[in-house]
Specification:
2 domains, about 15% strand, fructose-2,6-bisphosphate 2-phosphatase activity, alpha/beta, six-stranded mixed sheet, Rossmann fold, 16 helices, about 40% helix, 6-phosphofructo-2-kinase activity, ATP-binding, ATP binding, about 475 residues
């Protein structure tokens, strides 16, 4: 079924091309996977929650804060991550940071600066929860001492804000080294630095905090806390008698892994006869089979180049990441992935990746739908994300059934992942990874002549495109 294009009014498009997980306030827009809402705008009647992260640098706290924020927003929970490092950089330019700023025995002047920065961040967290309609705030900082955490917990609870501590513990040295390497490349603290000096400085920062760092222990048994060990290898829980919201947070943590690979999106090849019917399981046309070959060759060439670039940047012989391919159970999708299967890459079929059910509009062009069902089209134009044509699915329905796929995607850490699917599915999954508003999702385009690549980093996801030469863009089905 065809769909209306640019004549439909929609909100700003920045989140389509830039990860919007740090957008703030009303600009965030409606949530794609929202289950239900209340009159207050907060879900599940869970009150106000502050998730306080704990852990040494290079333990993946920021990655965790951003990922958890992305997932909760997807569910419709008003969530925002507050990074203490952002407040430091706003207060003190990198060139002016006191030499003892990261040392436990800092001067009184430096301690006052640190306390002011901490207070600014803490006050913004409280304002977000108590004045701006937020439900979950994530406080991303080292929070190294039991006494400091107790004071923070008391301060928030006096304002009727529940506190959950999540400590990220890393005993895997390889994981720490990869986190350090990523920070060296992407952190605003080290823009323009020589790579070796950046790594040396960051390691010194870590070691300066080790003597004063106190892991969450027996003295804090009255707190609600989770210890995330080696990013999902093991979880330790205490308390968490906080109902549904805590369970959703825990569900995410049980599935999350530290992602180092890329997620690629690609359309399937064209079907025989050129007409796609939902009720008919079409095979690829000759043109579609040629496209499938070009897709495989283009992605392999791109991944090989990226691997060589990563080896050169690391200065060592890194192993090449594996690749897993996901498709729906439809013949056209599976046949598009056949070239990857022939080369030994695992291809997994996921029933949830089936395209959005078109209902009574199956096989109809948008012009036909407009003539036969003008009132239905008017309703669609008013709310293209939530509207269902008779006996059809909406984009919201697709988003809800994507949650198991999203959680499995979060578990795929060391391998690259290629998803070959219908554009309705790609729109929804892209919307999750790039934190798009539900208002944007129905209008995302995936030309057949390019592969979309989304790379995860600690602070946000980044999108780029890989051209497939001599292929028709074909924005239709």
């Amino acid at each position: 079924m065809g769909e209306p294009e640019t004549h439909v009014r929609r909100r700003r498009q920045s989140s389509v091309f830039v990860d919007a997980v740090h957008d703030f306030g009303e600009d965030v827009g409606p949530a794609p996977g929202q289950l239900y809402s209340t009159d207050s705008g907060r879900l599940f009647h869970a009150g106000h929650i502050c998730i306080v992260l704990v852990g040494l640098p290079a333990r993946g706290k920021t990655h965790l804060a951003v990922g958890l924020c992305r997932y909760l927003r997807w569910l419709g929970v008003k969530t925002h991550a507050f990074h203490l490092g952002d407040y430091r950089r706003a207060e003190i330019p990198n060139d002016d940071i006191p030499a003892d700023y990261f040392l436990p025995n800092a001067s009184s002047e430096t301690v006052m600066i640190r306390q002011r920065i901490m207070s600014n961040c803490r006050n913004d967290v409280a304002a977000y929860l108590l004045e701006q309609g937020g439900q979950v705030a994530i406080f991303d900082a080292v929070n190294p001492t039991a006494a400091g955490r107790k004071a923070l917990k008391t301060w928030f609870e006096e304002k009727d804000v529940q506190v959950i501590f999540i400590e990220s513990v890393c005993t895997d040295q390889a994981l720490i080294e990869e986190n350090v390497r990523e920070v060296k490349i992407l952190s605003p603290d080290y823009q323009g630095w020589d790579e070796k000096k950046a790594i040396e400085d960051y390691l010194n920062r870590i070691h300066s905090r080790i003597p004063q760092f106190e892991t969450i222990g027996e003295s804090e048994v009255t707190s609600n806390y989770i210890k995330l060990i080696n990013y999902g290898q093991r979880l330790v829980l205490n308390g968490l008698h906080m109902g549904y919201m805590a369970n959703r947070i825990l569900l995410y943590l049980m599935n999350v892994q530290r992602r180092f690979g890329s997620v690629f999106f690609a359309r399937a090849g064209k079907a025989e006869g050129g007409e796609i019917r939902y009720k008919i399981d079409c095979n690829l046309s000759e043109e579609g089979r040629e496209y499938a070959k070009k897709l495989c060759l283009s992605l392999e060439a791109h991944r090989e180049k990226e691997h060589q670039d990563e080896k050169a940047a690391a200065g060592t012989d890194l192993p090449k990441r594996g690749l897993v391919v996901w498709t729906s159970t439809r013949s056209r999708m599976i046949q598009t992935a056949a070239g990857f299967a022939d080369k030994g890459y695992p291809v997994r079929e996921r029933a949830q990746l089936a395209q959005m059910h078109p209902g009574i509009c199956d096989g109809m062009a948008y012009e036909e739908v407009t003539k036969q069902y003008p009132k239905e089209v008017e309703k669609f134009i008013k709310d293209p994300y939530n509207f269902r044509y008779p006996r059809a699915e909406s984009y919201h329905d697709v988003a809800v059934r994507m949650e198991p796929v999203i959680l499995e995607l979060e578990r795929t850490s060391r391998e690259d992942l290629l998803i070959i699917a219908h554009k309705s599915v790609l729109r929804v999954l892209y919307g999750y990874l790039m934190a798009c508003s539900a208002t944007d999702i129905p209008f995302l385009e995936f030309p057949r002549n390019r592969i979309v690549e989304i790379k995860a980093s600690a602070y946000n996801n980044q999108v780029s495109y890989i051209d497939i030469e001599n292929v028709d863009p074909d924005l239709g089905d």
